[in-house]
Amino acid sequence: MTGRENSEDKFEEQWREAFDEWSAEPPKAVWSEIDRGLAYNDLSAYKAKAAMYRWVAAAVVLLFVSFGTIQYFATSDNYVISVAATIDSPNPLETYKWSLNDGQSDFRGGLHGGGSGSNAVIASTLSDENTSDSELFAQEEEQAEKQFETYQVASLATSLNTETSYVDKHLYFLPVYQFHKKKKTTDRSKYWAGVDVGSGSFNPNYSSTANSLNSNLGVNPEAGFALNSNSAFDTESPTVRENMSSGETVSMGVNFGLKLGNKWTLETGVQYARADAITETNVIIKSNSFQEVIPATVQGKRVPEVEQVVARESLVEYDYQDVNLNNVFEFTSIPVKAGYLLLDKKFSMEINAGVIANIYMGNRLSTEDPNIAELTIGPGDASPYRDLSFSGQAGLELGYRFMKRLDVILEPNYRQSINTLTKSNSNFITNPSGFALTTGLRYNFN
Amino acid sequence: MTFSDEDLIDACSKGKRKAQEELYARYSSKMYPIALRYSKMQQEAEDILQEAFIKVFKNINSFRKDSSLAYWIKRIVINTALNHQRSKLYLYPMVDIGDLRNHTGPELILSNFTYEELLAMVRRLPTGCQVIFNLYAIEGYKHHEIAKQLNISEGTSKSQYARAKSLLKEWISVNNNIDYDRAGEF
């Protein structure tokens, strides 16, 4: 509207002036139609919000179920590092104390030098007097602190705090699904980040070359072995039948990815993974130093505290008892995987494969029986487990874009260890594998 | 109580229906004739007006106050009308442009006609001529702007307009019982 080309011609000016001043009221029905159109737009907006709330609710439920699963497996309130043996302590999971006379300096030295005790808090008080073990158990704690060297192993409590926020919003439930409009599908963005939780099976694929108390725990007493306290001792080591059976795994983490070209993707992230398994053994060891009995498992062989406590016994007293120990392995995992997009629309499908670096954080063996000592196998030189192991993963990732930038992801996958979880000099081998189902939310940046 | 345009815009951007109704009441009577000029029938004009105002309310957040609200709404009405007519437009050069340059005559007297009569003449034009006449004569676009907007050649725009002008003059002269060609000879 920048003016006309022939200003000399008044034809156009007359027409413009004639219509410039003209106004006419449209029929009332026009506003009614506009009002209806606007109402429809509002309903569509509310419906989109309702759809978003549905997905958010589903995601929240999913997260709570996942956290609930983790909490379910975390049956103990406290996490004990390195040593789990209790003497004269009313709560074996809170504080562990035992006393030794000065003649047992080797043991004391062993405790101080324990490689897996890096997370333990140890306080010691030296005493000048020598006291026998039988006296030790007869004295009160206060007296013992004066006369004996006292070790205290404090427990480190782990807690998982989840906070939820609730925003009071009205939800509009609208019977307008027949007006649902299909949104234009959009391709996957170039960069994305997300959170995921997963659950699945954990098969340790366990095998052991140790089948005796001697080989399982490295017990080599001077006098020999005694079945119960009243039995005669024997120099032959009792046979130990040990196995580790399958359990479950849960994981949670964050992931980041980018698209390489039209079909290929590369994804990495950080995950906390926890795997459960059951160790079955048929022998327990009794020690004068411990109130609890020690389960004969090859995993405890190189734990310095257990090793030295057992080794100092001249006559190892054992008994046959079937014990099921709950293993709780913990890892920090860093997956790196490449994917190929089979479908890249509102609904996406991708096959992927990659390598996961598993950083071993520890394994806790416990039972519900308070008379059986709890063992924690940490990382480090003394541990039978590698600090870093690798596994391969292959999966099918299904995605659905339910908001402009948000995808919900569901991925069934299979994992198989590439190298053994155990060190080459360990007396047992585990090659974990298992199926898992991972789900999560993904935010697309562009 | 009357609201300023700014107040109405703010309220409309929040989806306040009363404000939307107020804005519609304020500007619809000026926009309805525009829709009528670009359409052949009243129902079509009502559809254009309805669709245009829904666009106005939907996009009012994008209104930049560097122009008047009336001008912004008018542009939306015109664009909506053009979208309605676009499928009907078969624009091609109708006459030799050179023959039209001296197509002048004595001054027309439009004041003898009512709005309704003038509108009837405009709507009687072929669709292509009607659109280009509205854009050039009433809205004030240049031919190269019209050509770009309708994706036609500038020559087509000029020839269509010349045809529209010729027809309108003919109808006006008949109604005025004046032979402008003859008058030009006097």
Description:
The complex is a heterodimer of chains A (446) and B (186). In chain A, the strands form 4 sheets. Chain A has an 8-stranded antiparallel barrel. In chain A, strand 14 (315-344) and strand 15 (347-366) form a beta hairpin. Helices cover 21% and strands 40% of the residues of chain A. In chain A, helix 3 (105-113) packs antiparallel against helix 7 (304-311). Chain A is built from 7 helices and 20 strands. Chain B folds into 2 domains: 5-86, Orthogonal Bundle (Rna Polymerase Sigma Factor, Chain: A); 97-185, Arc Repressor Mutant, subunit A (Orthogonal Bundle). Chain B starts with a helix and ends with a helix. The chains are: A alpha+beta (446), B mainly alpha (186). At the A-B interface, helix 1 and helix 2 of A face helix 2, helix 3 and helix 6 of B.
Concise account of the structure shown:
The complex is a heterodimer of chains A (446) and B (186). Chain A has 446 residues and is of the alpha+beta class. Chain A has helices spanning 10-20, 28-73, 105-113, 133-138, 141-147, 213-217, 304-311, and strands at 78-79, 95-100, 121-125, 149-154, 156-157, 191-202, 206-208, 224-227, 233-234, 243-245, 247-260, 264-286, 294-295, 315-344, 347-366, 375-377, 388-401, 406-417, 428-430, 433-444.
